[in-house]
Predict the structure.
Amino acid sequence: MALLSKREIIESRPIGDGLNAFRDEFVFTCRSSGLPCSIQSVHELDHDALQNLCICLILALQALPASRALPPVVGAYKNLFNDLSRLSSSINSDEFNLERLLPLLIAAFNRESDEVIWDKIYAAAAETTPPPPRPPPYVEQTPYSCSTSMISNSHERRDDIDPVLKEELGSIYTDVPGFEEAFFGEVKDLEKAGTAVFHRFIEGDDPLYREAAGWRDWPQSAEEKQVLLPRDFAGGR
């Protein structure tokens, strides 16, 4: 079956008396507000009255067979009926600018041609269609985080590791007054236990630590390759 054009759908499914309920509501609203039953009164209605008329018109349009046959404004929708549903929800949110619908209200009340009315419906629905979301910037798509665990440990990459390591460690302070008392002051017998352990390091004929030479087997140059060599600092103890 061949697809009908928009014009063919409108002609084959006329509005007829489908908007009479809206026109009756318009007259009732004007009388209730003490205004002349003229389309010019639409500019003098308060927000709630105008909002009610707009919703009444959209619901009347949804009830028309053409709304379920006409193509949608938003491509993901099935038909124009879905756009009208979204438009109705927007109107009811109290954040919608009702003046956008005045051309449609005037055309519907004045019984303009079906084609004119549907064109104004498309225009109103298009104005309230949010633009498609833009893809997030690259940095938002994939959070970037670099740490020393991401860099292979080699002499050649030392220049790469140093700035990353500094960022990873954050601020570094030395000789902070009161540090030992603040962090270790409540540890019972810490100094006594530390002294006992240190004495074990300096015991024997070949102690692990000598005052003059420092730690046993510690490389003189303290280069990275030498420091990272597997060592038995406990000396088998």
Strands lie at 209-210, 214-215. The first strand starts at residue 209 and ends at 210.
